[in-house]
Predict the structure.
Amino acid sequence: MNCSAFIKLQTSVTNCRRCPRLVGWLEKVAKEKRRAFREHQYWGKPVPSFGDNNGSIVVVGLAPAAHGANRTGRMFTGDRSGDWLYRALHKAGLANQPESRSRDDGLELKDVLITTAVRCAPPGNKPHPIERDTCRSWLEQELDLVRSLRVIVTLGSFAYLQTLRILGDRGFSLPRPRPRFSHGVEVSCAGLTVLASYHPSQQNTFTGKLTEEMFDRIWLRAQQLKNDQYENTNS
């Protein structure tokens, strides 16, 4: 990967002001804050991706959480979804520690890059379709830069559908009809596999829709798929 191009891209992400509704919301949340974080300095900007710039696994979420990544400035950092994600990555050997509290806590990822379909925390965690489409170019540019990409793990149906939409529009041969979103579904195309997971949101984890065992299996499968893709490429 061209690291300078990647850094330049992330700088452009954090400076983005294309969506007035989201910019207004970010500024409002960063000013008002949540009571538990009253003493925190909120990031309050679009959130750049985080992890291994040369990773063969890219994780795509929905959007930063208002008082999680929008507060800390790092993907899936500072909320319970992030607790689940980084704990699972650590168990799979893809992170050097199981917790993610702040941008300077020493967390490092191995062979994994984490990003989102929308880079600004949306009100109610629900981006408008026009905001989804406006933000799409950032994810597309990232996918172009990650030359070693073999597996895309999508967290939730929003990320899954947006990822397939991008790949389909870019000429990847996808099954017809496209597989419906469900936990563990796989879509293979031209040396790349999209692997879907339920999002580790509190709604899913508190209700038991997503268990730790289910989530752990996703990361074991992602590594197996990555290895299989490498073997096929080199055979």
